[in-house]
Amino acid sequence: MGPLPEVIVALDLASAADALSLVDTLGARVAFYKVGLELYTGGEAAVVEALRDRGKRVFLDLKYHDIPTTVAAAVDGAARLGVEMATVHVAGGRAMLAAARQAAARRVRLLGVTVLTSLTVADLVEVWGRRAVTPAREVVRLGRLAADSGLDGAVASAFEAAELKKACGPGFLVVTPGIRLVGGERHDQRRVATPAAAARAGADYLVIGRAVTGAPDPVAAVERVYADLEEVRARS
Domains in the chain, please, with CATH? Predict the structure, then answer.
């Protein structure tokens, strides 16, 4: 297999103080962090600058979904913050995705959000009216639209990663949330996988939140993630 996926720790915490305390605890073990809606819209946008001051890479996961002009302005703002990756909902449509890509201007890599890992078949029927369809089929369909629109990759669970790579090409990034350690709680996620399973499926990045941030010993939890990935390398 190719290189092991990179680990991104999701700072889904209530305050910048809590988030940065965790970052300092993990130290050099983790280089890449996700800042999402909870932290950013809680008045903690300055955490992005604080992370960059610590030499960390930032994935800004605000899942933009609006009219093309608004999303383009938001993507431009993300690029000016100096983040490495940002997300837009593919369901916003081709015109919105094209506007986002143009605004990014290669300053930030854009990822298309396909089907949230919390959604099931029943949810697709209820919310989108999509009958006789699976999350995997919807992910691939939306992933193709993201790739055709010039996005750098997509966010999808490990269950869809291999098909997404096959449909969109090996250079299309797959960022996989819903990562749980063996025996860990699912919480509100449904399509979850271990680090090893996601790596074998072809994920390029693993987004790990509560399995680390909610662990009694976050350092030990991160080390378990790396051990799981190294086992994949050893067996390949």
Answer: 6-235 (3.20.20.70)
